Amino acid sequence: MKSKKILFAALIAMVLSSCVSTSYFQVYKTGHSEKLVLKDNLLVYEDENCKVSYNLWGKGGNIGFQFFNKTDKNIYLNLEESFFILNGVSYNYYRNRVFTSSTSSGAMTSHGAIATKYATGLNYLDLIQTNRISATNSVGLMSSSGSSFSVSYNEEKIICIPSKTSKVISEYNINESLFRDCDLFKYPMKKQIKSKTFSKEQSPLVFSNRITYSIGQTDNLIKFENEFYVMEISNYPESEMLESKYDEYCGQKLETITEYFKNVSADKFYIKYSKGSDVWRH
Known about the structure:
The structure is a single chain. The chain is mainly beta. It contains one helix and 20 strands. It has a domain at about 20-75 and about 170-205 and about 225-280. It is globular and about 60 Å long. The protein starts with a helix and ends in an 8-residue tail after the last strand. About 20% of the residues are buried.
């Protein structure tokens, strides 16, 4: 009888422990300069020549932007005079890098596994980026009769954006470090969720993009700054951040369940962290 009670208690403990989140999210809500407007789930700055769109949502926050040319002429985006600024420290968008792209050909026998990356959703930042390279690696055996070559090219200081088109610039994340405060439980249960609010002057993170461009090839440069600051920070258990749904398209519903973020917004971003043997409450 005693052994049954011990087994029953152990089962209850297992069930309760399985209900406790081991993954947590710190969510940052931002304020922004008056010329930025929340429109179609994007933060948008617009002047007579261009429209610049932001979606900060993502792990660590994405300060990348989409630059749309409204004019009938080419716009030249000057990366050498464009900067990401975080808490008064500036970071260059032009970094004088050399990129190398390699190509191989020959008889290949594949024997590896295929790795697939899944995204929660799509936005304009899934477009090909102007200043990054993406590559796909194949696993296999290449015969000795194959050939390979590589092409190197320098990073562009000035990017041409043709009339009525856009390009995406993405280089930096906003923050990867967990913010801690006595008003925030580090590993909260649902009833322990609180928010810490800030004015711009008190904010732990103030950041901006200073962007420089010209209409046509001229020395007459146009400059503007899009500024943001963190106005609210909250910690959540995973159960309060994600929801499970059956994907559906044109009336067809899949049998597999996909997890999606709740309350996604272009003026928010997050950090994901886990609980191990940490004993800190805050």
